[in-house]
């Protein structure tokens, strides 16, 4: 049994440190401003440990995975590039680690006060840049 239920449609309500995170990804000023102005929606279908996540924003991206099983997915910024990810439960958090590139983006999703908090980290150690995206259920 999954420790949390993320099923539903979630709309972005707040970003924290997004510009620094996007800058660490190598995105230019114009793209960063466009991303900051967007209000993406996550459509999450969860059946236990099986997930279908559709992210609708500047681009639409769909991921399908099962917690505990590595999966390959396209890089949303470069459709020609793929990475292998490992989704695991970390207590009551869903952690998705990039196994292909430890310096790439890692995501943690959790529920805090009824909101979906998505913490994104790029890099590691002293060079890690962390951003939070907070979503409310529609």
Automatic annotation (TrEMBL):
Superkingdom per UniProt: Eukaryota
Transmembrane region(s): none
GO molecular function per UniProt: lipid binding
Ranges where the Lipocalin/cytosolic fatty-acid binding domain occurs: 8-111
InterPro entries: Calycin, Fatty_acid-bd, ILBP, Lipocln_cytosolic_FA-bd_dom
Family that this chain belongs to: Belongs to the calycin superfamily. Fatty-acid binding protein (FABP) family.
The protein's name in its UniProt record: Lipocalin/cytosolic fatty-acid binding domain-containing protein
């Amino acid at each position: 049994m999954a420790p949390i239920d993320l099923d539903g449609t979630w709309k972005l309500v707040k970003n924290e440190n997004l510009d620094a995170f996007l800058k660490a990804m190598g995105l230019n000023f114009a793209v960063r401003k466009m991303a900051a102005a967007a209000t993406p929606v996550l459509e999450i279908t969860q059946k236990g440990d099986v997930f279908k996540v559709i992210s609708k924003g500047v681009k639409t991206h769909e991921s399908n995975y099962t917690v505990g099983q590595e999966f390959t997915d396209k890089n949303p910024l470069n459709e020609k590039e793929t990475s292998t990810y490992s989704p695991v439960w970390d207590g009551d958090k869903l952690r998705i680690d990039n196994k292909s590139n430890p310096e790439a983006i890692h995501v943690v999703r959790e529920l805090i006060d009824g909101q979906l908090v998505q913490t994104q980290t790029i890099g590691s150690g002293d060079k890690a840049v962390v951003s939070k995206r907070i979503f409310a259920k529609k």
